[in-house]
Each structure stands twice: as structure tokens, then as C-alpha cells.
Recover the amino acids of this structure.
């Protein structure tokens, strides 16, 4: 990467993704999250159409909301996100992120999500240039850069996707904005320093969290790795 940039914070926000949890024992997954030094909980909502997988609906968020004080970060990997965003807002989502590729009227949806009392986010898949986000950036609180092709956990990070983080970090500074940059896919101790230098603020971690023998230590190591990458 030609230009080294850094995120808004010296320490990242870490969000374990429930996609990598044992769906038959969500209470145990939540206990692991609560015992670790994490900041958010990430929910990958998949409809089997926008991505080739199915996960869960708004009831998952509604059931977990009373059991945690952590912000709930909902990522809609669905077609027509405007049709289901209200249900997730009502369920207790703190952030609702939808895909630029999934809706025509992104500004309208971002405004609608904010009017529901939820922070709006926008996401892009690896094949979408970050330049296409330029018009929506002033209207969102979060930009999610998918660093793998979405749909399944455990994939290796696509290195070129981090160039998008650097682009977005530069645009954020130029435009005087303060949206967070999130990365999702192949985020682990080896790739975190690169994500940190590229300007990522939020690290979505799935298998690197739930697959760790000691998830709490994995989170401490992740944050240490991030901070060590900064000057």
C-alpha cells in the first residue's frame, strides 16, 4: 500500500461475528463475548439471495438485546434491505448496515434508518470500487469494507480490499467526516496490522474469535497488534 493512514482511534472497536458461533448454543456464544474485551456484537443477516447462505432474522437481535449492554451491529446481506430494516430497528439494533449493491435509493434508506433512531451504515463487496461510495459518505456513520466475498466465514482476506480502507480514510479526512471504517473477512492477528495502517477502526472477527482456545486472550492480542501497528 503506497500510503499509510490510520483510523480515528488508537485502539480498535472489536466486534465478534455470530456467524462463526455455534447456532445451537447462542447463550454460550454470548457468554464468550461478555467475558472478552470486545466492543460490539456483529450480526450477519443473510437471505440466501444476495449471498448464498441463510442465517437469522430480527428475532435473534430481539432475543439477545436484553442480555447484553454491548452495541448490536447488524449487517444486512440481503436484497431489498429497505423492506426489513424496520424490523431490525424495532428489535434493538444500534447500527444497521446495508449494501450499496442491494438498493437503488441508498440516501433514502440511510435517512430512514436514522429516523428510526439507529445509526446507518453502508457496505460494499470486494468487486465494488470504494469510489462509488463518495456520494453517500456524508449520510452514514459506518462504512463496512468486505475483505472476503460475503456469505461464509473462515475465508482468507483479499489484500487489495485494504486499499479501499486507505481511500476511505483519505476521503474522510478531506471531507471532514467522522464515519467509522469497518473491515470484515479474514481479520486475525496477522492481518490486523495491515488493516490498522489502512485506516480501519472496527474489526469484525468471526473464526479468529470463536475458534480461539481463549477468546479473551485473542481479543487482547488483536488490540495489542492493532496498537503496535501505529506509530
Amino acid at each position: 500500500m503506497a500510503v499509510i493512514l490510520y483510523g480515528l482511534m488508537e485502539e480498535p472497536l472489536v466486534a465478534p461475528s455470530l456467524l462463526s458461533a455455534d447456532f445451537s448454543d447462542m447463550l454460550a456464544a454470548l457468554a464468550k463475548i461478555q467475558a472478552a474485551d470486545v466492543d460490539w456484537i456483529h450480526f450477519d443477516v443473510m437471505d440466501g439471495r444476495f449471498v448464498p447462505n441463510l442465517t437469522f432474522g430480527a428475532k435473534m437481535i430481539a432475543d439477545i438485546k436484553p442480555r447484553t449492554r454491548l452495541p448490536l451491529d447488524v449487517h444486512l446481506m440481503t436484497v431489498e434491505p429497505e423492506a426489513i430494516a424496520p424490523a431490525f430497528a424495532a428489535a434493538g439494533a444500534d447500527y444497521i448496515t446495508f449494501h450499496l449493491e442491494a438498493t437503488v435509493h441508498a440516501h433514502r434508506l440511510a435517512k430512514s434508518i436514522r429516523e428510526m433512531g439507529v445509526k446507518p451504515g453502508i457496505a460494499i463487496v470486494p468487486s465494488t470500487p470504494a469510489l462509488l461510495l463518495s456520494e453517500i459518505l456524508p449520510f452514514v456513520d459506518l462504512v463496512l469494507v468486505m475483505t472476503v466475498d460475503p456469505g461464509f466465514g473462515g475465508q482468507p482476506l483479499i489484500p487489495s480490499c485494504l486499499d479501499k480502507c486507505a481511500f476511505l480514510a483519505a476521503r474522510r479526512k478531506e471531507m471532514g467526516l467522522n464515519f467509522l471504517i469497518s473491515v470484515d473477512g479474514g481479520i486475525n492477528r496477522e492481518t490486523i496490522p495491515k488493516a490498522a495502517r489502512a485506516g480501519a477502526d472496527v474489526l469484525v472477527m468471526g473464526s479468529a474469535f470463536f475458534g480461539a482456545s481463549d477468546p479473551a486472550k485473542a481479543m487482547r492480542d488483536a488490540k495489542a497488534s492493532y496498537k503496535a501497528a501505529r506509530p
Q: What stands out?
A: Residues 26 and 53 are 19 Å apart (CA to CA).
